[in-house]
Specification:
Number of strands: 6
Strand order of the largest sheet: 1-2-5-4-3-6
Mean pLDDT: 91
Distance between the termini: 9 Å
Low-confidence stretches: none
Order of helices and strands: EHEEEEEH
Bound molecules: flavin mononucleotide
Radius of gyration: 14 Å
Structural class: alpha+beta
Helix content: 10-25%
Number of helices: 2
Largest sheet: 6 strands, antiparallel, barrel
Length: 128
């Protein structure tokens, strides 16, 4: 299990408009310590722990040029704006590989399934 620490930065806001705001993380060091993909995660922020889902990757559906690895977390039951704050993220379990989708719509449908899967998995086993 890896622990990623990062400062929350503004993404290009597509997440927000499609119904699941994500915290985009500026991670140091730059080297990815996780293989790309989608993970069930625990987020530590100001002394509280939250469940969430994280994508680590290049976001091939919306992004064709820049191959930089992005860390994006959607935190469940969390509605604060935390740009500039630091959070810690622990990966608990791997969900799937990141992949290109033919449309944003299809990506959104898949992410909704991923969120359901991760929520139910945390109901079965909340610790990791
Ligand atoms: C749980 C989750 C899974 C994701 N899976 C993929 C994926 O398989 N392929 C992909 O191209 N992008 C994937 N993304 C990235 C989305 O394209 C990205 O979050 C969205 O465009 C919003 O980015 P923004 O916050 O910078 O606007 C995923 C994001 C999340 C949160």
């Amino acid at each position: 299990m890896a622990m990623i620490k990062g400062k929350v930065i503004r993404g290009n806001q597509i997440g927000r408009t499609i119904g699941f705001p994500t915290a985009n993380l500026l991670v140091t060091p730059k080297e990815p310590s996780l293989t790309t993909g989608v993970y069930g995660v625990k987020v530590l922020y100001k002394g509280s722990r939250y469940n969430g889902i994280m994508n680590v990757g290049v976001r091939p559906t919306i992004n064709k040029e820049d191959l930089q690895i992005h860390y994006e977390v959607h935190i469940f039951n969390f509605h604060e704006t935390i740009y500039g704050e630091e959070i810690k993220v622990n990966d608990c379990f791997f969900v799937r590989e990141e992949r290109p989708f033919d449309s944003i719509n299809q990506l959104v449908l898949q992410i909704k399934k991923d969120i359901k899967f991760v929520r139910s998995r945390f109901l079965l086993q909340s610790e990791c």
